[in-house]
Amino acid sequence: MIDNACEWGEAAFLIFSDNVGTLIYYTHIFPLVISLFLGFQVFINNPKQRSNRVLFALTLLFSVWVYFDLILWASPTPELVMFFWSAIVPVEILMYLCALYLVYLFTNNQKDIKIRYKYLFALILLPVVLFGHTSLNVMGLSPDCDTGAFEGILIQYMYFIEVVIIAIAAYLSVRGYLKEKDIFNKKRILFIGGATVVFLSFFTIGNLTLSFSLGPYYEQYKLFGMPLFAAMVAYTIVIFGAFRTKVLLAEVLISALWILVFSTLLFRDISNARPIIFATLVVFAFLGIILSKTIRKEIEQREEIQMLANKLEKANARLQQMDKLKSEFVSIASHQLRSPITAISGYASLISEGSYGEVPSKMKEPIDRIVQSSRMMATSIEDYLNVSRIEAGNMKYNYEDFNLATEAEHISDDLRPEALHQGLVLLFRKRVESQATVHADLGKVQQIIHNLINNAIKYTPKGAITVYVHDDVLAKRIYIDIIDTGIGMNEDTLHSIFQKFERGDKANTVNVKGTGLGLYVALKMAEAMGGSITPHSDGEGKGSRFTVELPLII
Ligand code: ADP
């Protein structure tokens, strides 16, 4: 058990004691909280960035330093004071090295320092680690309990290292600033380099005033380098996006205000605190100006965005109107075309079938061409009409109950001759456990199946087409698979075929005719009736399968 060497009592948490004036707590706790706040914010926002980690380490070391220093002020136990006085030396050197590391990162494009410099850093620390506990560091305490200490050679060494580090940091900053071309990076280097040099200089000047025996009270102001540093770093983050983080200036300002209000509660004698409050005011004035500038800028930007949004909305409305006009135009034009083309197609078929007498052999081919082309044209017109109906929301659905398997079989029978004509086999199979009844628009369902089988015929040069109806009673769904051995589809095609006017890469090589609208229309119709269409293919040349799915009535 060690007796108290001084007349005041034990310190709570090692740092709270009657002997220590409020000024000391203010000069210590205010920078400590500011520094921890900044370090945490930057670290949490982007922990992967090296400079953020280094800044965090720097603020942590600073906080440890401040805590140790408070112990020196508050503790009456000589052994404790001796221990922390010695321990503060490596912490201080490490803090300076960290600050230098930070400046290096900013002036070298965030590149890590070379390994040999890291060894050099370790070498600089070595003497204080090895001899920190000896009388080379702190020789002893003054007996009159003012917590003064007799400094050994290691402390002189520390001051020397500090001055050298400040000089290097200043040199790196100036060189980096001059070398950098990008104006944003230039400003970042200026502010971070400047902030670090200011912080370290405050500290070292404070140390030296103590050594030159100007009294411990002046020394306290050295810690105000930290709030200044924090303010400059916050400014650089907000204005120049340093540390790739978004510390809101308002957050910094409000927390700082909170700390100020809280700390004034600690004052017993206000006159003693006047210079400190003044210093704090300067920091706030500085932060306040930046804050209002940033907010003004943000408001301007927001107004600009709002204006652009209004313009966009108007343009969008006009576009929608034009789109509607276009759909109406297509619809009218298609209607006008539909009747004549139906007439041409119908009469040409009759002529070709010989209804108006024997067709001279020379005319057979041209008439067949007229039949084919006019049919093609009629389908295209029907597709355009359907698209314009779907887009205008005018597609009408007349629901009724019917047997889907029977319908699919009929359509397969109808199309079999055409498939045979192309040299293809068209098979129909079914395996249904239910009545295969669906509640849907018969005409539309027929159109979908017709379209898919037609596509299978179009895109299958040789082989077979299978139409397979099956159901899932539990899930209340019925499926029609249209399977072919044709050109198949690659991944890209599979993803795009349901879009308007989209045709597969290989589609033209097999079948030049086509609008790229059939599947779009078929899918929209199936979806409107509570169903879907899913394409599948193992790849080009490996055939395709289209599955139509509809709700089943049980
Ligand atoms: P179109 O047949 O008029 O080009 P669709 O919308 O019916 O338009 O089909 C879009 C595209 O989907 C086709 O161009 C083709 O590339 C692809 N496709 C459709 N059915 C098949 C199929 N059975 N086999 C291979 N590709 C197909």
Q: Which properties best describe this structure?
A:
single chain; two-stranded antiparallel sheet; alpha+beta; five-stranded mixed β-sheet
Q: Quick one: how many beta strands?
A: 9
Summarize the biggest pleated sheet: 5 strands, mixed
Q: How would you describe the shape? A: elongated
Instruction: Report the total helices.
Output: 16
Which spans have pLDDT < 50 for at least 5 consecutive residues? none
Q: What fraction, in percent, of the residue positions are helical?
A: 55-70%
Measured on Cα atoms, how large is the radius of gyration? Answer: 42 Å
Q: Mean pLDDT score, rounded?
A: 84
Bound molecules: adenosine-5'-diphosphate
Order of helices and strands: HHHHEEHHHHHHHEHEEHEEHHHEE
User: Structural class, from secondary structure content?
Assistant: alpha+beta
Distance between the termini: 91 Å
Q: Major sheet: order of its strands?
A: 4-6-7-9-8
Percent of residues in β-strands: 5-15%
3D structure, described in words:
It contains 16 helices and 9 strands. It is α+β, with helices and mostly antiparallel strands. The strands form 3 sheets. Strands 4-6-7-9-8 form a 5-stranded mixed sheet, covered by helices on one side. A two-stranded antiparallel sheet has the order 1-2. Strands 3-5 form a two-stranded antiparallel ribbon. A hairpin with a 4-residue loop joins strand 6 and strand 7. Helix 8 packs parallel to helix 10. The chain is elongated and about 135 Å long. The structure holds adenosine-5'-diphosphate.
